[in-house]
Design goal:
The protein is α+β, with helices and mostly antiparallel strands. Helix content is about 35%, strand content about 20%. It has a 4-stranded antiparallel sheet. The chain has a two-stranded antiparallel ribbon with strand order 1-2. Strand 1 and strand 2 form a beta hairpin. It is globular.
């Protein structure tokens, strides 16, 4: 993932890189559930019972596969476009979270893997959660993940790479 991030052109990265439905989610911001989970308001279920596991609630509610049906299939064309989409969405959501909650606690996670189809296209999943000292990490030992590329991104990372 480190090399993919380094190869992604982040100049002029902005809302134009985010698919419309994801852009709307980012623009509508964040809220907090009864269980204390920080969730993207538009992704919040209409009726949900309070969860005692805030990490699971956050990653489940906030997680989505990134739109990619309109992207080219050739890896050298697809990969940079998919990365830009994911990073632009993460950046927009993390900035909105910082404004809503007044801190930089929410982290974005992007994972890239090959689809289990004949074409084996590169696909991406994005989610958000707030690491807490009393809860195990969302992805333990991130550097040792195999079979997919994963990155944890903070709002501070977004400022450094903009």
């Amino acid at each position: 993932m480190r090399s993919l991030l380094g190869e992604t052109d982040l100049r002029s990265l902005g809302s134009q890189d985010i698919p419309p439905l994801f852009r709307e989610v980012a623009e509508r911001g964040w809220s907090t559930t009864a269980g204390g989970a920080r969730v993207l308001t538009d992704l919040r279920p209409q009726s949900a019972a309070a969860s005692v596991d805030r990490l699971a609630e956050e990653t489940t509610v906030n997680g989505r596969g990134m739109t990619d049906y309109d992207l080219p299939t050739a890896p050298h064309e697809r990969t940079p476009l998919l990365m830009r989409r994911c990073l632009a969405y993460i950046r927009a959501c993390l900035r909105a979270a910082q404004e809503e909650f007044g801190d930089s606690g929410v982290k974005g996670y992007v994972s890239l893997s090959f689809s289990d189809t004949e074409d084996a296209l590169l696909t991406a999943h994005v989610t958000f959660c707030t690491p807490r000292p009393d809860v195990p990490a969302y992805i333990a030992d991130l550097e040792r993940v195999e079979n997919e590329a994963v990155a944890e991104i903070s709002v501070e990372d977004c400022r450094l790479r903009s």
